[in-house]
Amino acid sequence: MAVAQELKDIMADNLKHHLKKKGITQTDLARDLNIPEMTVSNWIRAVTYPRPDKIQMLADYFHCKRSDLTEKRIEPENIYPVSKEVSYVPILGEIACGEPILVEENFSGYRAEPKDGLPSGDLYYLEAKGNSMEPTIPDGAMVLIRKQPDVESNEIAAVLVNGDTEATLKRVRKQNNVILLMPDNPEYDPIIVNEKNPVRIIGKAVRFTRDL
Question: Could you tell me the superkingdom of the organism this chain comes from (predicted)?
Fold first, then answer.
């Protein structure tokens, strides 16, 4: 009984998929299974269709189900290619989301991030402590900071206060000639910046992650 061309096409597509996934060629497959390379080539070109015993042999070889070879693959719409290029972003100490904490720029490791998902610039992570920036930034979150000396009004920044001896994470509000460091949590009071209470912005909070 002749096999419909559609079934041959499905088999051919699945074989190509599994060859690519395994990182081998049709020549490798033919050699490993002791099958004539022309036979494998005809399967992959959808010229012929494997016999049932050969389908089982292929399924055993690829460690998959027979249906993975004989049925049409449906790729989930929410699957996207994963970047193979990775950047290692340093983790530097802690930063307060509440009362400022003493600056401890102690290096504690790296976080691996897909390179194409990172913004440009000099980047590092700080661990948020406290809840003054909740619900925007939760306690314990790893906050990605891009090193820069200033931010736009209403952006969140890593800020040094009290003569650069303490650090905090706050939303910078610029009103006329007044700068306020605003918490997102209404239970906390803003910090007013003036000559007697100067601050220094050391970076912009880009995003945060939190491990489960």
Answer: Bacteria
d(CA 68, CA 47): 19
Instruction: Please write the tens of the pLDDT for every residue from 143-188.
Output: 999 999 999 999 999 998 888 788 889 999 998 888 899 999 999 9
| pLDDT of 181 | 92
Cα 91-203-189 angle, rounded to 5 deg? 105
The yes-or-no answer on residue 115 being catalytic is no
Would you say 131 and 98 are in contact if contact means Cβ atoms under 8 Å apart? yes
- Active-site residue 67, yes or no? no
Q: Enumerate residue ranges in the chain where pLDDT < 70.
A: 1-2, 75-84, 99-106, 211-212
130 touches 139 (CB < 8 A): yes
What's the topology of domain 86-209? Umud Fragment, subunit A (2.10.109)
The residues of the chain that CATH labels 1.10.260.40 are: 5-70
Catalytic hit among 132, 147, 153, 204:
132
What's the CA dihedral at 156, 207, 166, 129 to 10 degrees? 120
Q: Is the pTM of this model over 0.85?
A: no
User: Domain 5-70 classified CATH 3.40.1350.10?
Assistant: no
